[in-house]
Design goal:
alpha+beta; Phosphorylase Kinase, domain 1; D-amino Acid Aminotransferase, Chain A, domain 1; six-stranded antiparallel sheet; five-stranded antiparallel sheet; 28% helix; globular
Length: 254
């Protein structure tokens, strides 16, 4: 089977042209990176877990009326997604102080915030994805005021959904980041959730023990990243017990 044209390769995923106009094939790699790719490794099975977990979360969002790019899973490492114009922002939703926020404000990690806090960073690895205020976003034309209102409203809905799902399986949603894309339906443009939702893009702590079940395990050398992600998948019922996450090559659709 001929491999399709590669459109983009990032740190954790590869995008190939899709079988129909307006679609892409998103392939999840086993690569793990941290500190703007200064720390790297390959974790067998990570791509499989993230593919299945992102499918689970995106399907759940579709079911509650939050539009996103996910169309269907193709195999253990690939999913068919809707092509969209990515808004050049990472949208970070925080429920508890952790990571860079805790450092910036001198807060103890795990301190509950009075309400969810939304931050925006400009997507540029060479700059370290710097935090930017809404004034910058609108001044430079990255998004309009209406876009920002819609992004904030959708991000809060995603937060409510994820926090509820995680709480139901004994996991605390500390924070997460998502991306948004623009799609056109005739002359009408709308925003959809894009990229992925997985432990790569969330901070997840066990409610009882505080054990970290996200990429901080890799960042901070806290043990097996595969075991942490597998625990999240197990609790959510995403992977049956007999599924292996052995590394496989991309197999793209016609």
């Amino acid at each position: 089977m001929a491999r399709r044209k590669k459109i983009y390769e990032g740190k954790a995923k590869i995008l190939y042209e899709g079988p129909e106009p307006g679609t892409l094939v998103q392939y999840f790699k086993d690569d793990a990176t941290a500190f703007n790719a200064e720390k790297k490794d390959v974790i067998d099975g990570k791509g499989v877990l993230n593919n299945r977990l992102s499918e689970f979360f995106m399907t759940g969002l579709n079911n509650i009326g939050v539009p996103n790019h996910f169309l269907k899973r193709l195999n253990m490492r690939e999913q068919l997604i809707r092509s969209c114009e990515i808004v050049p922002l990472e949208v970070i939703v925080r429920n508890f102080a952790a990571g860079s926020m805790a450092k910036r404000l001198g807060m103890e990690e795990g301190s509950q915030l009075p309400r969810p806090v939304i931050e925006f960073s400009y997507k540029d690895d060479s700059l370290g994805d710097p935090l930017v205020p809404e004034e910058y976003i609108m001044a430079f034309g990255w998004a309009s005021q209406q876009d920002m209102d819609d992004i904030v409203a959708m991000a809060l809905r995603v937060n409510d959904f994820l926090a509820g799902v995680m709480f139901g399986v004994g996991i605390k949603l500390i924070d997460f980041k998502i991306e948004f894309g623009r799609v056109w339906e005739g002359d009408f443009m709308r925003l959809i959730v894009a990229d992925e939702i997985s432990p790569d893009s969330c901070r997840l702590w066990d409610i009882e023990t505080g054990r970290k079940l996200d990429k901080d395990v890799f960042r901070q050398d806290l043990g097996s990243l595969s075991d942490a992600y597998s625990e999240v998948a197990r609790r959510l019922g995403v992977l049956p017990g007999n599924v292996t996450t052995t590394n496989t090559k991309p197999t793209l659709v016609n």
